[in-house]
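Q: Structure for this?
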Amino acid sequence: MNVKQSLLMALKSMKTSKMRSFLTMLGIVIGVASVIILISIMNGLSDQITSNLKNAGTDNITVNVFGRGGNRSFQYDDMERVVAENPTFFTSFSPNVNASVTVKNGTKSVSTSVRGTNEYYQDIQSVEVEAGRFLEFVDVERLQKVCVIGSYIAEELFDGSVYEDSTVKINGSTYAVVGVLKETAKSEEASADDIVYIPYSTATRLSGNSNIGNWVVKAADVSNIDAAITELRDKLYLVYGDSSSYRVSSMSQLIETLNEITSSISMVLVGIAGISLVVGGIGIMNIMLVSVTERTREIGIRKALGARRRAILSQFIIEAATTSAAGGIIGIILGIVLALVAGSLLDMAVKPSINAVLIAFGVSVAIGMVFGYFPAGKAAKLHPIDALRYE
Amino acid sequence: MIQLIDIYKIYPMGDEEVHALDGISLDIKEREFVAIIGQSGSGKSTCMNIIGCLDVPTSGSYLLNGQDVSAMSDDQQAHFRNKTVGFVFQQYNLIQKLTAYENVELPLIYRGVHERDRREVVMEALEKVGIADKHKNLPNQLSGGQQQRVSIARALAGKPSLILADEPTGALDSRTGAEMLDFLQQLNGEGHTLVLITHDMNVASRAKRVVSLSDGRIVEDKEVRH
Ligand SMILES: Nc1ncnc2c1ncn2[C@@H]1O[C@H](COP(=O)(O)OP(=O)(O)OP(=O)(O)O)[C@@H](O)[C@H]1O
Ligand SMILES: [Mg+2]
């Protein structure tokens, strides 16, 4: 008995008993569909996170300093020297001095955060200026009271019309507005547009703390970013003598870690969904056992006509595999459709992967074969006369 | 061709034993037409099942073309049934899900005949029994006589040298039954060995040799002159 013949026979018996075949497949359908949905959602999620993080620049190294380091701390000059001495690792850097402030224009006022940076920050973080200019070297060098405001601030304080001589009061001191940033996040409160940039030197004075706790350093070569990070850590260790006083990390490391986390979460979820595949397999085994009993006489006739054990065995295994493969295909289609529906309802990026589809199909065929083997073996071992006499 | 030597078939029934066959010795030569006759329960079907390798005797030996059947594996016996034996059962034993055509095709599939070559053989066999026009019908769309024709076509399709027919006319009216017997007799004329099981002396009288069974023993074995 060849494979094609068994396959046709299996499809035929599926067609004649649709309800039973569907119920048999249901476990596989649910299992495969949930695996596909989970993988699609996790894939979409991790793509979204990765692309968000990539926008923030994969060549950026973030340095956080927590320790006060006794009598000495890592200052602007120290960072400047490290960057200048290692042109193969670093191209530029900027401090990030953050503070919460109140910004006023006449009677209008908003609470926002200021960020003190130097002139390189614009390039490092790809900040785009809508009107005017970003901070410049002289502003930083001379502790100028100038600021570049985000579109949300421009909207709130100036109704969008900022002039060359516009000024704001930050915590009471007057700052000249030299630039307005391009809108990046619909000018909403607490978004990336709700920010004011001032020279870092001015900012340390404003916050009354001369220690810089946060830096961003641009790596010269992303592929060499690990060595660059090591270099920075070595330099920081020389100052603080304690590796827990600072943290140096990069966006690409972060992406890597996040990808590891999302992939292990999806492994767990898929594993759980996989349990229903096993349950589905047991359902198939159950129905196949019933079917072998029901068709004992048929098996007897086939044996009387000269079917060998292998022929009967393969007939039932192929039947089980066909059933679960059909369940797998339905599950794949259902899973993709549901994932896309869920994605559009929840406004999430979903990404069904061809690999997941292929694996799901392969696994469902394999489950049919594994769980079909026992009933098929039972059928193959029947004695012809016993099977023929069976009523 | 067939040599049964002191065959016993014993079924345990509670404390007792049923001797379905109680020491049977029988020789059947190629091209013979043998009728096995006896009352219900005399062991005819049991005997046929053993001859057809569907069942194994409790003791005794069965030589098939000189070869001991008890030494053959399951698959070798399956091979033998497939190549050499054509069964015609009282209850037809057609597979209900398969059409007449597909039923007749089965022995050829198990023999490994290619799809192209099967078609011709199957249609030829169906034509021979006069039912080619119904080859797409399922068994339950056929009358009893038509089903028995299909089962004879199935027995024929593999061109077996031995045809075993167990009460082939049992479920048919006498005219249809006679037609079936004509077929079988014709096949014997064409060179197939024919073993016909019946409890009807009229049917048995068509055979060249009649073996009478009673309580699992042979009580008479005679040539019939026509
Ligand atoms: N599987 C079995 N278990 C127990 N006893 C059996 C079994 N098969 C047959 N027998 C017994 O063996 C004896 C012979 O049975 P067999 O079927 O060969 O009779 P038969 O001559 O074909 O009868 P009939 O003309 O009614 O078909 C009977 O007494 C029957 O009860
Ligand atoms: Mg009988």
